[in-house]
Amino acid sequence: MTAPAAARDAGLQPERTRLAWRRTTLACSVAAVLGLRQALRGPGTPADAAGAGVIVLLWMAFLWVAHLRMRELAEARPRGLASGTALAAVACTVALAVFAVALLVLPAVIG
Amino acid sequence: MIDFVKDVRLWFAPARLKDEGETPDYRFSLANERTFLAWIRTALALVGGGFAVDQFLPDLRWAVRVGMALALLAVGAACAVRALNHWVRCERAMRRGEDLPLSRFPVLLTAGVALVAVTMMAVVLLGWTKGR
Q1: Does any CB of chain B come closer than 8 Å to the CB of residue A6?
Q2: Cα–Cα distance between A6 and A86 in angstroms, integer?
Q3: How high is the pLDDT of residue A2?
Q4: What ipTM is given for this predicted complex?
Q5: Do A31 and B41 touch (CB under 8 A)?
Q6: What is the pLDDT of residues B46-95, one digit of tens each?
Q7: In contact, A108 and B66? CB cutoff 8 Å
Q8: Residue of B78, B57, B81 lying closest to B68 (CA atoms)
Q9: Calpha distance A1→A16 (Å, rounded)
Q10: CA-closest candidate to residue B116, choices B44, B64, B57, B38
């Protein structure tokens, strides 16, 4: 291995990881858009608006977490994933799922 | 069960994870991170699929439609939680120099998704939709 190879990872691991985060934000955006569509299909009650608001907040939280991690990954030798970051990404995903259940079931229960 | 409680503690205590063994080559940690992200994308796709079933299959009976959407959402949430747990376990195994943990989850996920797909086919073939 020559000196430049030591400075720059030949396997492009940080870049690949950064792109994996980017793909994940895109997947999150698709899920969020579908969730937004779900919330806005209703008659437009305050509850629907609140539902849309929560989905946008969850989406923005996920983007923020991903943004912070992608900034760390811009370094040549980034530190490993902090478990707080992993936990935040999972929390956003689970919250989106829980919220989806509420959007699906509550209109039928309330009528 | 007790092992699982220990794993859950690790989700919330990154410092405890650093106490274990030695820090692996950062490239292995990044590979583990990408695997974690792939599982998160799977979870997000399942959540999106749950929304899509409810929105784009209006001819299904309410109970069938919502039942299938709820199944996909539940699997999606499980997938996300399991992604975190598996990431923590892999990270710890790499630090200790142990084999990576084996998991039955991929089989369960495959079975779950296949079940939803087969149910959907049965519903369409048997015409179990709202009569128009």
Answers
A1: no
A2: 28
A3: 43
A4: 0.88
A5: no
A6: 999 999 999 998 888 888 889 999 999 999 999 999 999 999 999 999 99
A7: yes
A8: B57
A9: 21
A10: B64
Tokens 């007790």 belong to B2
The neighbouring-strand residues paired with A7 are none
Give the list of residues 6+ apart from residue A100 with CB closer than 8 angstroms, or none: A35, A38, B47, B50, B51, B69, B73
Cα–Cα dist B81/A94, whole Å: 8
Both structure tokens of A100: 């989806």
What's the CA gap between B123 and B71, in Å, rounded?
A: 15
Length of chain B: 132
Query: Which parts of chain A have pLDDT scores under 70?
Result: 1-8, 10, 111
> In b/e form, how buried is each residue of A46-67, taking b as 16+ CB within 10 angstroms?
ebbeebbebbeebbebbeebbe
Q: Please give the angle made by the CA atoms of B76, B80 and B81, to the nearest 5 degrees.
A: 120
Q: How far apart are CA B81 and CA B115, in angstroms?
A: 21
- Give dist(CA B36, CA B30) in Å, integer: 10
A40 chain-B contacts, CB cut-off 8 A: none
- A24 CB neighbours in chain B (<8 A) are 37, 40-41, 44
Domain chopping of chain A, boundaries: 10-110
Report residue A57 as tokens.
């907040």
Nearest neighbour of A104 by CB, restricted to B11, B29, B54: B54
